[in-house]
Amino acid sequence: MQRLEPGSDVPDALIPYLGVDRTRGPHECWVTAHMVAGLDGTAAVNGRVGALSTAPDQELFRRMRQIADVVLVGAETVRREGYGPVRLTEQAQADRVAQRRTPIPPVAVVSRSLDLDWGTKVFTEPTAEARTLVITCASADPERRAVAEAHATVLVAGEDRVDPVQALAALADLGHRVVLCEGGPRWLGELVAADRVDELCLSISPMMGGDPLPVSVTPPGSPPAAFELRDTMIEANTLFLRYERPGGRSNG
Ligand SMILES: NC(=O)c1ccc[n+]([C@@H]2O[C@H](COP(=O)([O-])OP(=O)(O)OC[C@H]3O[C@@H](n4cnc5c(N)ncnc54)[C@H](OP(=O)(O)O)[C@@H]3O)[C@@H](O)[C@H]2O)c1
């Protein structure tokens, strides 16, 4: 047991995350999940995440997208949060271009139903280069799929449901090597169950109460996945924890 003592100031909260080598994962792409939880593990308050997120967490959430080749998210989160395209500062875009990345990562939405509001900003406002992706399965309704194709680039990954492994392979085929998953809990749980979460950036917000929805909902029978703590920061009573799956990946 060790006590975590207050350490040196971090001049820029993004620096510890920018410094992570995400080329060393065991698969064709690296998956970073970024979530915020209350002290009781809740992932939402009245169906939204806003009340859980403190000011430094909100800022980190926006800026963390700088590390991503693509931002991956479940359809219910897009529906509830009214997602828009990723916005980054001019400097962040220039830094990405200097690293031979696109200025802005696209958003990829996972949906079987394709029951999405195509008037949402995430579909109407991205640049052509960051056109939103929709990842669905072969059994999706063909008429809805045709509509989806008019508003987004549609990828098919799996038969009756989106298979996380196939979805990540499809993203990697498009050149996306760093996948930032922003939830929600059910889609994140699918990635955890498939053992495809390489890194978890978890903010612990100093509050209790909220919806009976934990940060990750794994399908029944999924084995637990163990993580190792790699970084801790604190601001405004909010803990910023960075975990990675161990290299050997044995479940513990
Ligand atoms: N605390 C946080 O950091 C955080 C982050 C994100 C979201 N949230 C909160 O979490 C809640 C939403 O999360 P959620 O867990 O209910 O939903 P979610 O994971 O965002 O989305 C679930 C939906 O994604 C699609 N999906 C998931 N797995 C799929 C699969 N294998 N194949 C095909 N489609 C699949 C389905 O869409 P279709 O129904 O379209 O088929 C499913 O209904 C909201 O309250 C939001 O505010 C919190």
Automatic annotation (TrEMBL):
UniProt cross-references to Pfam families, sorted A to Z: RibD_C
Record key words, sorted: NADP, Oxidoreductase
GO aspect biological process, one term: riboflavin biosynthetic process
Pathway(s) served: Cofactor biosynthesis; riboflavin biosynthesis
Keyword check for Oxidoreductase: yes
Domain annotation Bacterial bifunctional deaminase-reductase C-terminal: ranges: 30-232
Superkingdom of the organism of origin: Bacteria
GO molecular function, one term: 5-amino-6-(5-phosphoribosylamino)uracil reductase activity
InterPro entries, sorted: DHFR-like_dom_sf, RibDG_C, Riboflavin_Biosynth_HTPR
Record-linked NCBIfam families: PRK14059.1-1 (NF010663)
Protein's recorded name: Riboflavin biosynthesis pyrimidine reductase
